[in-house]
Design brief:
With 149 residues, this protein is of the alpha+beta class. The chain contains four helices and five strands. A five-stranded antiparallel beta sheet has the order 4-3-2-1-5. The N and C termini lie far apart (89 Å).
């Protein structure tokens, strides 16, 4: 009788270890697939923006914000900005002369988001990422680009 219980408990321990190993393998594979998908999304966006796929811009989680940070110049018109900033999932225009862009997702918690600010004349003044203000204020914003003057 004691031998029966020993085998039962010992076999359950082995099964438990196998289940744990299987769960760990599933988690590792899921994370690897997620990283591969993110890399693929960055490469596809780079192609749409005519950026070389081996560009250092793609090496960061903030792509394409880092690319636009260097490419957009103060004083550009909305039309010039809109010719450069493309490939987004969603854009909101806001009553304070701003646009909020969503890349890779139209969901706030999954997207790379940044805000482009213009002056009263429709000239580009600055780009702000989520890291600059911790969160972007989209109150009163509606889908679509700001109109051309």
């Amino acid at each position: 009788m004691d031998d029966f219980f020993f085998r039962l408990v010992y076999t359950d321990k082995i099964r438990f270890k196998h289940v744990l190993l299987l769960l760990a393998l599933i988690l590792v594979l899921a994370r690897g697939a997620s990283i591969a998908l993110e890399h693929l999304q960055r490469r596809e966006l780079a192609q749409r923006l005519n950026i070389a796929v081996d560009s250092p811009y793609l090496d960061t989680q903030s792509f394409p914000e880092n690319y636009f940070w260097e490419t957009l110049k103060e004083g550009m018109t909305k039309k010039e900005v809109h010719e450069i900033v493309k490939g987004y999932e969603l854009v909101l225009h806001c009553p304070r002369y701003a646009e909020i862009y969503y890349y890779y997702s139209d969901q706030t918690d999954k997207a790379v988001r940044f805000e482009i600010l213009y002056d009263e004349d429709g000239k580009f003044t600055k780009l702000m990422g989520e890291g600059d203000s911790n969160t972007l204020d989209d109150y009163g914003c509606v889908p679509g680009l700001l109109g051309e003057p």
